[in-house]
Write a structure and sequence with these properties.
With 274 residues, the chain is of the alpha/beta class. The protein has five helices and eleven strands. The protein has helices at 13-16, 58-65, 108-122, 177-185, 227-239, and strands at residues 41-44, 53-57, 73-79, 82-88, 96-100, 127-134, 152-155, 166-167, 192-199, 261-262, 272-273. It has a nine-stranded mixed beta sheet, sandwiched between helices. Strands 10-11 form a two-stranded antiparallel sheet. It starts with 12 loop residues before the first helix and ends with a strand.
């Protein structure tokens, strides 16, 4: 069919394409559900408020928890019925400690409500966060191998960490819930610092939905940092909130076969002892 290029109207679709009526038109977007997912956050346990707060997240948090002598679980943060935060009040610190996303991860849409609920419930005096960053994806003018990659930090206010470790510099970004905690606290007078362990792995994207918690994750590590690196990160974590602790970070000799003890309590999904 001849088409007049000077015509005032666009020719019918069938005149320039196909006679197949079931052909997909890419200009017609498929219907989507714009209703935001429900995020139901519940804090369980009789927890102290106004303490300093330490939050260890994800892979770094799991590994740190196994050598931190946290003791018996005292509280939990449930998101849509799934235990996301495990809360401890170990005797060697005056701070409240939370291991976050060790058993299951939250979607991006749940990160802010989860973080906000934790901070509203615990009302911390100051906050120190532990997480990791992917060395292969870190943007720098002087790339280094994982073996030589340093521990880095971010802080919302001047800190003595600048004299000890390197800054997590722009344009690099943190995409985990640690970023949600920092963004909420950045507009308050509450000091927050983030300690970042180097990781050789690029993390998986956040899930679309919350999966059931899996306690076996606490006994398995995708990354095993050295004892010296963990002790340094452990010290920095508490230095950031100006607390001196009298204990060493130490894994048991049989840590590869470690099982996490569960106790029958009303906390979380039965309570844990790490």
């Amino acid at each position: 069919m001849d088409i007049d290029p000077l015509a005032d109207t666009v020719p019918p679709r069938y005149a320039v394409e196909s006679d197949e009526e079931d052909e997909i038109n890419p200009l017609h977007a498929s219907p989507t559900n714009d209703t935001p997912p429900t995020v139901d956050v519940k804090i369980i346990g009789n927890l102290p408020t106004g303490n300093k707060l330490v939050i260890a997240t994800g892979e770094a948090g799991r590994h740190w928890a196994r050598g931190a002598s946290l003791g018996e679980q005292t509280g939990a943060v449930m998101v849509n019925g799934v235990q996301i935060g495990l809360i401890f009040n170990p005797p060697w610190t005056k701070s409240t400690v939370m291991v976050s996303e060790a058993l299951s991860r939250v979607p991006i849409s749940s990160m802010h409500p989860y973080s906000e609920a934790v901070l509203d419930a615990l009302k911390p005096e100051c906050v120190s966060l532990l997480d990791s960053y992917a060395v292969p994806a870190y943007i720098t003018n002087h790339p280094v191998s994982y073996d030589d990659a340093p521990i880095r930090y971010l802080s919302t206010s001047p800190t003595n960490l600048a004299q000890e470790i390197e800054l997590f510099s722009p344009p690099n970004l943190i995409h985990s819930t640690s970023a949600s905690f920092m963004s909420i606290l950045a507009i308050t007078n509450i000091m927050v610092s983030l300690i970042l362990l180097p990781s050789p792995l690029i993390p998986h994207p956040a899930p679309k939905t919350i999966m059931p918690s899996n306690i076996s994750h606490l006994a398995h590590d995708d990354v095993e940092w050295s004892v010296s690196a963990m002790n340094r990160a452990d010290k920095l974590l508490f230095d950031a909130i100006k607390e001196n602790i009298d204990r060493k970070w130490e894994l048991k000799d049989d840590h590869r076969n470690t099982t996490v003890t569960t106790k029958t309590t009303n906390i979380g999904e039965g309570g844990m002892y790490i």
